[in-house]
Structure formats: C-alpha cells, structure tokens
Amino acid sequence: MALTSRVPQIAAGHDEPALLPAILDPAIRQLVEQYPERLHDWCSRFGSPLNIVLPWLLDRNLQRLAAVLERHRVDCRIFYAAKVNKSRALVKAAVEAGLGVDVSSRFELRDALEAGCPGHAICASGPARTGPFYRELAEADALVSIDSGEELAELAEWAARQPSGRRLRILLRFRPSAATTSRFGIPASQMPACLAMVAAAPEAFAFEGFHFHLGGYAAASRVAALCEVAVWVRRARAMGLPVSLIDIGGGLPIRYVESQAYAQFLENQSGADYRTGRVPASFYPYGGGIDAAGWLEEFLAAAGPDGKTVAAYLRAEALTLALEPGRSLADQTAFSLFRIARTKLLPDEQLVLFVEGSSFSACETWFASEFLVDPVLVSRARPGTPPAPARAWIAGHSCLDDDVLTNRLIPFPVRPRQGDLILFGNTAGYQMDLLENEFHRVPMPRRIALSADLATAQPDDLGGTS
Ligand SMILES: *Cc1c(COP(=O)(O)O)cnc(C)c1O
Fold first, then answer.
1. H-helix or E-strand spanning residue 341
2. Is the CB of 213 under 6 A from ligand 1?
3. Across 57-76, average pLDDT
4. Are strands 205-211 and 245-247 parallel, antiparallel or unpaired?
5. Residue 156 near residue 118 (C-beta atoms within 8 A)
6. Is the pLDDT of residue 14 over 80?
7. DSSP code of residue 206
8. Are strands 122-124 and 143-146 parallel, antiparallel or unpaired?
C-alpha cells in the first residue's frame, strides 16, 4: 500500500497551482517524516545527488505480478530488464527472488552471473552484439533473441564453429505490424526465410520461440502482436521446430501519482505552470489508470488467438509466457536526493533552486519532457515561524543552459532554503542514472542500498567495469 504525500495546500490565491503528490512507499515516507536527519547525514557522507536504493521492494512488485499469473494458471518466466537501473543490489534482489535477467551488454551479463543468476536463466535482447558478447552468452548457456536475418546467418556459421559443440539457445525477435517503422526485429515478410535458416542449422541452434518488445504502454498492442506471433508458432511447429516460449518484452506501466490528481493536472495545466511558458508535448503516463498487475490482468484476459483468451491460448498450446519488465519491477525501489546549493530570485520574480547535481540525474527534460511528479522538500528544523509557501523551478549546478531538472514551477509548502534537500521519489526507472556522467569533472553520483530497517546504508556502486 502506498501513501500519498500530504503536501499542505498552497495559500489560496487566484492562480493556485495544481499539486502532483508523489506516491511514495511507506518506507520512504517514514524516512521523510521520522528520520529526515538520516537523509541529511547520508548526503553529507556520500554527497549530492545521492541515489538511494531499497532493494527488497523489487520482490513485492514481483509478487503482485505472480498473483495474476497464478490466477490465470499461466506458466511464466520473468527476466528483470537490467538496463532500467545500474544498481547491482537490484540485480541481486531480482536473482534472489528467483527471476532471470534480461541483459544487453557483457557488463550486465557479468552482473547477473555475479549475483548468482544461473546462465540458462539469462536472456539477451538488444540488436548489436559483437563476438565477445556472443561467446560469453554461449558459455553461460543464455537465451539469445535474434534481431535480424543477417544476425541469424552470421550466427549459424559462428555457432557451428564453436568448439563446445553446444547449441546456441535462441528466440526470433518479431517486428509486429504495429511497429513497421521500428529498426528492431524481423518483419513478417522475412520470417519464413529465418525459420528455414533455423530449421537448416540444428547443429547450431536450439530454437525456443519468439520475442517482441513494443514501445508504448498499451496491453492491447501486445495482444495484437501475440495474435500475429501465433501464426508463426503454428508455422514453426509445422516445420518441426519446437516452440515453447513467447516473450512479450517489457513496458508494463507504473503509477507515480494518483490517477485522479494526474488527470486533473493534465486538464488544468498551462504554459504558466512552466518557466518556459510552454507545456511539453508528451509525458510518460505518470498517473495512468492502470498499474503493472492490472496491465497483466488485462493482457491475459483479453481475446487472443484461436478465439481464446490469451491465457487460455497459452495454456492450450503449452506455451510459457516470458516477460522482461524493467520499470515495473523497479517501481519504488529507489529515490534521489539533491541538496540545494543556492536559491536565487530572477528578474521575472521566478525563484530558481540551484542543486548540487545535474539534470543528468533526473533526466526527463533531456527528452523534451518533464518528470511530472512533485519532489518533496526535506528541510532542517527551523526556529521561528515557517516561511510562506513558494513556487520554484530547479536547475543543476553546471553551466549548461539546458541543465534544468524541472521546467515546471514546483509548488513547495514552504520556501526552500540553501542546505535543504529535494527528494525525487521513484527515480529507479530510467530516471536517476541513465544519463549520469562526470561533466565538469564532478565524480559520478553515489548510489547506496538501504537495509530493510532503514538504519544502515551500503555503497551500491563499486566494482570493475572492464
Ligand atoms: C527496455 C526493454 C525492456 C524493459 O522495458 P520496461 O519498459 O522497463 O519494462 C524489455 N525488453 C526489451 C527488449 C527492452 O529493450
């Protein structure tokens, strides 16, 4: 159960700004409300920005999906899409929860193996692998999703030359008709030739089934893609190829703010809510009507191939469903702290908060969008009357004009001050570390993993990279 933050209403006025209170896990809420000194202490020790991981929450996210799968009696393999966050503590939590790992580089592969993931529970998606990566995947007996006829032809030769005599376990990545302009996957027109190539190289390949991954977050688009794949399942089986698995990728949505508050915000927002005077063109569905478990329910209960529901089709065909969730498994598993270095009133009366850290650690503005969730102000106790509410936008510490964490004018219950902390909730999914770098020679932001009692923190960012 998640609580909604209790940000007091901004003082009534003619242009009262709409709030987008972050859904925060009770553990994070507890830190903010009961142990704010710990947040300040960790920032003093590890620097700002600071990414704080709560690895045990990953299993909670998994259990919600598992309950849906169980109800539909669908056999499923879940691969944690490791690219969602660089935390090794999260990879370890996924492996300890019994999940496989979806890897897209040799480095993610090694993290998975070091976390104790059995090689055969690793899946490699991603389109541009090179020889050394194939070698390590083959040695691990990992499942490899093949992205093109070109890749398949090259691998048929490569695998046949391997001294181990072990066959490469493969899926064929299908490009659904909803994604015809995508560069990923094998289009229907080339699928017969690819299946023929697989059938002709039994010494090279152990074929297990089909894969796709779509952009966007609609369950319906996955149902449509599954119906297209069902045709290829039949064709492959008719050719004598065993098909045991359909991997539908990731993209299960999560909720950052309550749907009602979000819908209201979207309806009422205007250029006046942004320092740029413009509303960004698109946003992640931060307060969508559906969460990951609801999405999976919708997918499995939908009308699928052969006049059956998707779940009934998978059962009837003895197919294992595979999922590669990244963001949805990482839901609530990390948050980010930024210390305010300076506040400044601009000539247009706008208040800007300069934080120690940059928008590379809260990166939505780099995608011409906005992380549409109110950050939480963690102030030190102040003697005297609390200052009045204020709106401010947040800038990074670099001299890039575009280094802006929020273009939105954030409503704060009290006016933020130098030394206060800004907490962005739920930054685990592609938010906190996707673009991080050492611009201005400032060292990489630190990442720490908390113990479940919220008392101790371990570094979660050490180890080799070569
Ligand atoms: C990124 C990616 C995922 C994970 O997507 P989420 O939206 O984080 O669930 C899964 N599979 C593939 C092939 C991907 O590229």
1. strand 334-345
2. yes
3. 98
4. parallel
5. no
6. no
7. E
8. parallel
Least confident interval from 14-23, 82-91, 261-270? 14-23
The CA 354 to ligand 1 mean position distance, Å, reads 33
> What is the band of 6 on the pLDDT scale with cuts at 50, 70, 90?
very low
Q: Give the contacts of 377 (CB within 8 A, at least 6 positions apart).
A: 412, 413, 414, 416, 420, 421, 422, 423
Write down the pLDDT at residue 4.
Answer: 42
CA–CA separation, 412 and 103 (whole Å): 40
Ligand 1 pocket test, candidate residues 324, 333, 427, most atoms within 8 A of CB:
324
Which of 103, 305, 77 has its CA nearest to residue 209? 77
Return the ligand 1 atom nearest residue 79 CA: 10
pLDDT at 316: 98
In 133-236, at which residue ranges do the beta strands (DSSP E only) sit? 143-146, 168-173, 205-211
pLDDT band at 380 (very low <50, low <70, confident <90, very high): confident
Ligand 1 pocket test, pick from 78, 83, 86 with the greatest ligand atom count within 8 Å of Cβ, gives: 83
Contact 225, 174 (CB under 8 A): yes
So what's the pLDDT on residue 462?
75
As given in the structure block, the two tokens for residue 56 are: 């045990």
Burial (0-12, 13-18, 19+ Cβ within 10 Å), 150:
exposed
394 Cα to the center of ligand 1, angstroms: 29
Q: What is the 77 CA–ligand 1 centroid distance (Å)?
A: 15
Q: Is the pTM of this model over 0.85?
A: yes
- 114-120: long-range contacts (C-beta < 8 A, 24 or more apart)? 114/88, 115/88, 115/91, 116/92, 117/91, 120/169
| Ligand 1 within 6 A of CB of 61 | no
Can you give the pLDDT at residue 463? 58
Structure tokens at 398: 């670099």
Question: Given a cut of 80, is residue 89 above it in pLDDT?
Answer: yes
Give the ligand 1 atom nearest the CA of 81.
Answer: 4
CB 87 within 8 A of CB 331: no
Q: Is 81 in the pocket of ligand 1 (CB under 6 A)?
A: yes
Residue with tokens 């903010």: 32
Taking the centre of ligand 1 as the mean of its atom positions, its distance from the CA of residue 126, in whole angstroms, is 10
Per the CB < 8 A criterion, the answer to whether 54 and 332 are in contact is yes
